[in-house]
Design goal:
The complex is a heterodimer of chains A (280) and B (353).
Chain A lengths: L4 H24 L5 H5 L9 H25 L8 H4 L6 H8 L8 H43 L6 E3 L2 H20 L2 H24 L2 H5 L6 H25 L2 H28 L6
Helix pairs in contact in A: 1-3, 6-7, 6-8
Chain B lengths: L1 E3 L3 H25 L9 E7 L2 E6 L11 E4 L10 E3 L2 E2 H7 L4 E5 L12 H20 L4 E6 L1 H12 L4 E7 L11 H6 L4 H8 L4 H9 L3 H12 L6 H14 L7 H13 L2 H4 L3 E2 L2 E2 L9 E6 L7 H5 L1 H4 L5 E6 L5 H4 L1 H16 L2
Parallel strand pairs in B: 4-7, 4-8, 8-9, 9-12, 12-13
Antiparallel strand pairs in B: 2-3, 3-7, 5-6, 10-11
Helix pairs in contact in B: 1-9, 3-4, 6-10
The chains are: A mainly alpha (280), B alpha/beta (353).
């Protein structure tokens, strides 16, 4: 379309008319139609200038009023009607936004605290287990010393370092077995495994965002796929069993196999008869 | 109590001998270190998911047309029963004219964490049994279970007795609360659900640590000290390294299957109580009416003899026999003494049934 000065002026006039109407509507709350206003407006005097003025005022209200409220509270001169439409957030209202729990932002933080607690439990359990093993070594050492220093019953002689070492191993292993078979050790061992597993579980849950972000998937995904696969295989297996239990189907399958065998035999015959004699 | 009779001369002689062994390792170790497991030829004949069924090539004329299916545990790899030429249960059975099949469970990964005992027993084992019956034209087969695989064999035979001609269990736990069962004792206070929910599959490394922790002084120390004595023998080093290779080649355990087995068998001891259900079917040990041979190891620290011998109290069969092997859990398969006793006994027992 060729540039037409008259066309451009028309567009400017229409734009200015529209802006003025919107500003008036905003102030009065009126929902009067644009056409009613446009007939009374001298658009040569309006247009972009009016729009800019209106926009500047609006921005001033938007930026200025909330800051006035937050920083200076209720100050004389700040309660002008110009600020009313922009005073949507008071300090008390903003306090609500400040509290992240309302937006769920503290969830990961609470899980981190839980992880720290479980980590501490796991460290405690590891220390307990370690203490048990230390006890084994102390008892075994005491028994070993007692055994080699007690010369009342000399069953046999130890004549090499290897035999001495093997004797120590037998005592240590015996002492260890006695310790392991206690209820206390079983509980401590179980506690160690359980806290380690719990720690791992929370760590995986906390680390969900990372793998998800990298599109690597989470542990539940292969598990659910595996469950689905197993379920489908089970259904296929059951369906196969049902089908094979069908006598008619079994007979049909047998007949198909016989037919296939006959086709193979016929093919061999055809190949044999079609092959030139000197190639047989 | 022993009397210490060490003299400076004896100690010096002993240390010199050790130094000599260590020096010999410079020559023998480079030759011995690359070892492979397995001495018998076999062929993959059937596969379902990651589970593979192998048929071993016969080494002698078949003396028994009924095939033997070996079901190994989910823990560790079945390579141990065919470790090397002179320590192979499979080779010994093949030499005695038996037709041997083996289930290889493979290496479960995260996609298998949902596999249950029903999958292992009712789908995989059942599919392989049906396949073997089909190809051998035998209506029933002989089942040989190893450790946890023996427990699986017992469950399967109780659920599908019509498919099993004879059942052989070796170092198989039946009563999981038997005395001196250290493994069961350690499991008592573990939250199995939490463990599986946090881990998915149970890693092979974790299982190794648990098994080594049953005898830490012997298995983590003494074994390696004694190995010094064999550093001048290439074959001895290779045997040692094959065992090490097998021990530390540990597949993960599928999470759900572990959950069921640990909770229902180890913690609740439901098998002898008749409360184990595989799928929707209750496992009743009295349904074991086929001939049963129960082989156990008298020095077994993983499956104490009472845990295995309990089977005799619950089977419904009138033909139940027990064979004691004077050794340990693994020794029953890899020791030279075991190969003098066990394969021949199995062959003899089967020939009469």
């Amino acid at each position: 379309m060729p540039d037409d000065p008259n066309t451009d002026m028309d567009l400017e006039q229409q734009f200015g008319q529209l802006c003025l109407t919107l500003v008036r509507r905003g102030r009065s709350g009126s929902s009067d139609g644009i056409e009613e206003h446009s007939s009374n407006i001298n658009w040569d005097q309006l247009g972009p200038a009016i729009f800019s003025q209106g926009l500047n005022q609006s921005l001033g209200h938007l930026i200025g009023a909330p800051l006035h409220k937050w920083l200076f509270g209720s100050v004389a001169g700040n309660n002008s009607s110009d600020n009313n439409e922009w005073c949507l957030t008071s300090p008390s209202e903003f306090k609500v936004i400040e509290d992240p729990s309302s937006l769920g932002l503290s969830l990961e933080e609470s899980r981190r605290c839980e992880f720290a607690e479980v980590l501490q439990d796991q460290v405690n359990a590891a220390n307990e287990l370690s203490q048990q093993l230390t006890d084994v070594l102390e008892r075994a050492s005491a028994r070993f010393q007692q055994s080699i220093s007690d010369d009342k019953n000399d069953d046999y002689e130890i004549t090499s370092l290897r035999e001495l070492y093997d004797f120590w191993i037998s005592i240590a292993e015996q002492t260890y077995a006695e310790k392991v078979m206690t209820v206390e050790y079983s509980q401590i061992f179980g506690r160690f495994i359980n806290t380690s597993a719990r720690m791992r579980k929370i760590a995986q849950e906390l680390g969900v965002a990372g793998p998800q972000f990298a599109s690597l998937g989470k542990r539940p995904e292969p598990a659910s796929v595996s469950e689905r696969q197993v379920d489908l295989q089970g259904k296929a297996h059951a369906l196969t069993g049902t089908l094979l239990g069908d006598d008619d189907l079994t007979l049909l399958i047998t007949r198909i196999k016989d037919f296939a065998r006959k086709i193979d035999e016929l093919r061999e015959v055809v190949q044999t008869t079609s092959t030139p004699p000197n190639q047989l | 109590m022993p009397r210490i009779c060490l003299t400076p001369e004896k100690v010096s002689t002993e240390l010199s001998a050790v130094a000599g062994k260590l020096a010999a390792a410079n020559v023998t170790w480079p030759v011995a270190q690359n070892v492979e497991l397995g001495s018998c030829a076999r062929q993959e004949v059937f596969r379902i998911d990651k589970v593979v069924l192998y048929r071993y090539r016969p080494r002698a004329a078949l003396c028994n047309p009924v095939p033997v299916l070996i079901i190994y545990a989910l823990v560790n790899r079945p390579d141990m029963i065919d470790l090397q030429q002179d320590r192979s249960l499979i080779r010994s059975l093949l030499d005695r004219g038996l037709d041997i099949y083996l289930i290889d469970w493979g290496y479960p990964d995260d996609a298998d964490c949902g596999l249950t005992l029903e999958d292992y027993i009712c789908r995989y084992v059942n599919a392989t049994v049906d396949f073997i019956c089909d190809v051998t034209k035998q209506p029933r087969i002989n089942l040989l279970g190893i450790c946890q695989g023996g427990t699986f064999s017992v469950c399967y035979s109780a659920l599908k007795p019509e498919k099993i001609r004879n059942l052989i269990t070796t170092v198989t736990p039946i009563d999981f609360h038997a005395t001196k069962d250290m493994l069961s004792h350690l499991f008592r206070h573990i939250d199995v659900d939490l463990l599986v929910d946090s881990s998915g599959n149970i890693s092979g490394e974790m299982l190794n640590i648990i098994f080594l922790s049953l005898k830490p002084f012997r298995l983590a120390q003494q074994k390696y000290v004694h190995m010094v004595d064999r550093l001048d023998d290439v074959e001895a080093i290779q045997t040692f390294l094959r065992m090490e290779k097998w021990i530390f080649d540990s597949p993960a355990l599928a999470g759900e299957a572990f959950r069921e087995f640990a909770r229902n068998f180890y913690q609740n001891n439901d098998l002898i109580k008749g409360k184990v259900s595989i799928g929707n079917r209750r496992v009743d040990l009295r349904a074991l009416r086929m001939p049963v041979l129960n082989i156990y190891a008298s020095n077994d620290h993983l499956v104490p003899p009472p845990a295995s011998l309990a089977l005799g109290k619950y089977v419904g069969s009138d033909d139940y026999e027990v064979l004691e092997f004077p050794g340990g859990h693994i020794g029953l398969y890899v020791s030279l003494a075991a190969h003098e006793l066990v394969p021949g006994a199995i062959r003899e027992w089967l020939s009469l049934r």
